[in-house]
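Lab notebook page, bench 4
Experiment: in silico fold of construct C2
Operator: M.H.
Input chain length: 297 residues
Purpose: comparison with the prior construct
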Amino acid sequence: MLSALGSAAMSLAARFKSGGVIVNEHTLTREQTRAHVETLARWFDFIHLNDLPARLERRQRRPFCLLTFDDGKRSNATAAAPELERLGVPACFFVVTGFMGGEMPLWFNLYDALLERIGTPPPGLSPQLVKRLPHDVLLARIVRACRRHGVSADLGDDDVAPMSWDQVRALHARGFSIGAHGVTHAILTRESKRDAFESIAQSIARVSAETGSPCASFAFPNGNYTPELAGHALRCGARTVMTTEPMWADGRFPLWRLPRVQLFGAQDRGALDLKIAVSATGRILANPDGTGKAYRE
């Protein structure tokens, strides 16, 4: 039933909605990558990041889909990208520059490992609090709790470990776009203005230096942004800036505030179709940045 409902809803959305969808993924297996592409290909033309500004302004027979992957996990290079390349589908990988090639998991992977081990959040690390703390405070609390309970994240897991910079450069050389996603995955609206500005500037500069090409896009960690921070990303060289407001993108949206719809590997065709169709309406899906349905105008 869900599959039929999702297909019917997507048929209407693809027929009457202008613009298209920027899909936000994180980690996918080869099989999940293929399933997502097959589902999306029924309704959308896949586009390269460079084609996005023009497609936002110009309605075509079919809506567009831009695939993006956040964080820079190793499975992006070992699983998702090879399957996308085999299928001839472009994508943009937004990397956390201080994470690439390192041996320290991102804070949320450590947090997940901690919760899995002890079952309940320790004091000062409730789910309601963790995304409201400055990154240095948050990471210090998580690391202390992990040491206390003998917890570590599995860096042998390609969905936890980072890509190397060699892998990032190889993706770029094969035609994939590489964007910046901050230095540490700090939620930038929780940082000081100085620290947030530095994270944006340093991550854009690092991607440009490592790939040998200007970094054309910046994605806000967790999606949290302000117009001032987005404007700084543009001044640092980004042409487009991504949020996580779960709506379709069209000419109404400025290039500094482009919405993205999060999809997940375990979702089947019916769930994918229905979520993307619902996102075409706007105002129904919750924003994963924590603001609920309070999208900015």
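Observations: The CA atoms of residues 28 and 264 lie 8 Å apart. The mean pLDDT is 95.
Next step: discuss at group meeting.
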